[in-house]
Every structure is written in structure tokens, then in C-alpha cells.
Amino acid sequence: MNILDWIDIGKVSAERDDLLSKYFYDAGVLNSVIQNSDSFLVLGRKGAGKTAVFKYLSENKAEFIPDEDILISLSFEDYNWNIHSLLVDPGKAESLAFKQSWKFVILVECIKAYHKWYEDSNITIPKKLSSTKKLLEKLFDSPIPSIGKIIGKKLLSLSKFSLPKAGLDLENGNFDSAELGGGEVSFEDVKNDDNLQGILTNNIENVITILEDSLFNLDSSCPIIYLCFDRVDESWDEVSYTASKPVITGLISASDTISSQYKNKIRPVVFLREDIFEVLEINDSNKLREDCGELLHWNRTSLNNLILRRLNFYASSKDVNSITDIDGLFDKKEMRQRTRPTNYILKRTMMRPRDFIAYMGKIIRVMKDKQNDPFSDEINEFENLEISAIYDAEPSYSDWLRQEILDEWKVQNPIIKDLFNSLRNNGFTNFTAEELQEQMKSQHPTIRIEQVNDYLRFLFDNSIVGFKLGASKEWRFKCFYPSQGFVVSDEYRVHEGLVRSLNLKETREK
Q1: How far from each other are the two terminal CA atoms of the chain, in whole angstroms?
Q2: Sign (positive/negative) of CA torsion 9, 14, 19, 21?
């Protein structure tokens, strides 16, 4: 059978992959974060599969969370981030500035979910919870709209309300003291009017106090609520980078506080890029990462299983026998220097699913181009993928990988562009710190060797370069040896996956 009649690897982007749930493979991070009540952060590099994990959990809750518990999935692709800037408390540190606005988002979702659970369970709804829901309906309409709509014009209208500072008579549902203002109010109206902004901030704080109070001392039989946040880096670009940092920091701070406040009852879970977490201004960020974070990390076995899961999904649809060995898909068991195909491919990835999927996809496309060669008079059919396709696909894959890294770091560390240019201009796979310094001088004439060593640490931490450890013959790259720390070395080497894109020659003898 022609292998090209059935073989596929699926889409690189989880957001666009409608078949993801058919062949999803989890490296174990979901069970880790759910079973640890202190965990609320899922961290991973760009391409590590965070959105895939979030999407699969959202669509297959029963595999990870007990039936009686509640899962709320919040993706912020079309979210009005500007609203948070109106609720900032300028008197607080940046790490706390947007905390209140995120607490509001989380607590509103919990009020709606718990109220529905009491109704569906035919259990008498606590008075405070019932009254709080009535207040939200009075403020934002009934039924209470989605968070996306509340954080739009609905929330702005709070600047037209007058909530008494002493609170409301929630026990009896008396909301007469909440005076409603008339007319629409826009973002620009509030932004340019200190009085409206002050009313909005005070009202949000009053409402948060009411929401918090209604969620304390709920029935012990109440389910756990998991609120999962994804796509919180939607505004992470050159234009909005500065504004996005404190907003994301506020979400982490609010999640941390609520996890502690409502121990094992309300569980926020934030899916976030590891590189973004590293540049946020958070107190005790290392402690937070260790105690409350789960790293989405892959090894050889888990990556192999992920690829096999995808290949076998497409094989089964065409009644092809189960694939147990990726190397067996190729026409030869070994490449140059007796390297196995999977080893060659894996060595050019950064141990991320997206890398392996992208390379395999390009290999398949090379084969299909050969099958559909417009200048060939023969009908080309292939029982196996050809080893030559791995080499032919490498330049395109290498360009793709370089662009992925640029996209990952160009916002928070734009020096990455100059570093890539310097590595390219040096021209060889291996180099010294002094050689990198010399190439950097064309763009940064006063650069010192101490700065170069800092850049080398950054390049190593992101697996762009590696080094030999002592007398070892193995080059150490962070992606392959995640526990390896940076060591100043006599010689460094560019990652194999970037060699073709940077047009580097094999190193000369030192």
C-alpha cells in the first residue's frame, strides 16, 4: 500500500486541530496539577503543548476530574484586556495592581457555578449566595452574562452605580441602596474621567467583598471548582508587552490568594509560557514555581508515544496495521554515520511536541511533492518514507524552528535577533565567547565579555547553544538535559536544528 495514501501527523497548532481529542497524549502534567492542591500554574515553553492540554481537559473533563466537581474553562482569545487598566490600584506594587480585577473575574464565575449546582442538586441555596446572585443580576442583567461580556460594556456601567460603602442588606435581598445610573458608558468615558474611574474601582472592591463573603462557609458537600485560564498571553506583542506584564502578574497573584483562601474548594489553574513567567515581577517567583508550578516537560519516551498516537489514528482510519516503531516507517533503518531516523529528528528538536510534529509534517510533504512531480512521467508510489526526505525537509524545518524562537523571545528579549545574526556571521557551528563578542561588536561596539557570558547563559537556557561538560564527548543542551545548569566554557555549539537556517559550516579545529 502506498504510505502516502494514509500517513499524516495532524496539525502543529492545537488551536486549529479539530481532531486533537482523537489522538491527544498527556505527559502527566494534568494529573500532577490536579492531585496537588497547591498547584495552580502549568508552565511550558512555546510549543510544549499547553493549549493542547487545556483544550483536551476542557473537552474530556471526566478523565481527570471527578464527576461531582466543576470545570470552568476560560480562554482569553477575544478578551477585553483594556478594562483591567481601569481597575488598577496605583498605590499598590505592580504584582498586586491588577489583583482585584482578576479576583472579580474568578469570584463571579464561582458564584454562577455554585448557584447552579445547588439548583441542580435540589439543595436549599444559602441566603448569602442567593442574594449575591440577585445583586449580580441587578448589576449585569439576568441571566448573568459570560465573563467576556461582563468585562466589556457591562462592567463599565458600574461606574454609573452607587453602592454604599457599608455594603448591602444581602440577607433580606434589599438592594434599594444600590442606585442605578442611566445611559451607556464607554471605555474612553471612564478612562478620561477620574470621578467615573474612582466610582468603578470602589464599586468593584465593594462587590468583591460581597462575593467573597457569600462563598465562605458553604456546605461541605459543595464540589471543587477548577477554573482553567488559557491564552492569557494574547496581547504579548511589541505594542502591548509593557501593559500585559502587570495584567498577567495580577492573574497569578489573584490565583495564588484564592487558592489559599478557599483551600481545595476553588482551584484556579493558569496555563502560561515559561519564558513569560520568567520576566514577570513577582515576589518569590522561584518559590512560587517550585511550590505551585508544574512544568510541561517531555522526554524521549513521551514524545515517541505522542507521535505514535497520531500516526496510528490515521493508520486505523485506512485499516493499516498498528505502527509500533517510527523508524520502521522509513526505507532504511540507518542514516549517515549509522544514525537512526528518530535519533536524527529528535536531535534537531528542542524536545517539544510542536518541533517533532513540524519536522515529520515537512518530511511527509517532501514525499508528496516527489509523488506529484510535474516533470516525472512515472507514477510514484512509496511503500515507505525515504531517508533522503529527512535531509530534504531539514532546511525548511530549520527555518521554521528559528522563527519559532524569534516569536518566543522577540518581545521580552529583542537581543535574540542580534544574537542570531552574530551566530550566522561567525559562520561555524562551534564558537568561543570571544568570537561571539567580536561579531556582536558590529551592532554593539562597547559590548563586554561579561555581557556576552550573560547572553550565552540566555542562549543555553533556551537550548540555542550547548557546551561540553568537562571531559565529556557529549554536547550538553538544556532541552536534552533539563537539570544541567550553565557553565562558562571554552567552546560552545549551535543546536543542530538551527544549523541549516543559520547556514553554518561544521566547525574548524580549535
Answers
A1: 51
A2: positive
Q: Which ranges in 216-280 belong to alpha helices (H)?
A: 241-261, 274-279
Contact (CB, 8 A) for 34 and 188: no
Q: How far apart are CA 192 and CA 101, in angstroms?
A: 19
DSSP 457-468: HHHHHTTSEEEE
Give the per-residue pLDDT at 510. Answer: 46
Burial class (CB in 10 A: 0-12, 13-18, 19+), 64: middle
Report which secondary-structure segment, H or E, holds 272. strand 266-273
Mean pLDDT by 10 residues, the chain (510 residues): 94 87 85 88 87 88 92 75 67 66 90 94 91 87 79 76 64 60 73 82 84 86 92 71 81 92 90 87 84 88 95 94 95 93 97 95 96 84 95 98 93 93 96 96 94 96 92 88 92 97 80
Q: Which three cell numbers stand for residue 86?
A: 481601569
Give how far the C-alpha of residue 187 lies from the chain's centroid of Cα atoms, to the nearest Å.
29
Strands 266-273 and 225-230: parallel
pLDDT of residue 445: 95
1.10.10, 1.10.3470, 3.30.450, 1.25.40: which CATH number matches 410-510? 1.10.10
Domain residue spans of the chain? 1-27+298-407, 28-272+280-295, 410-510
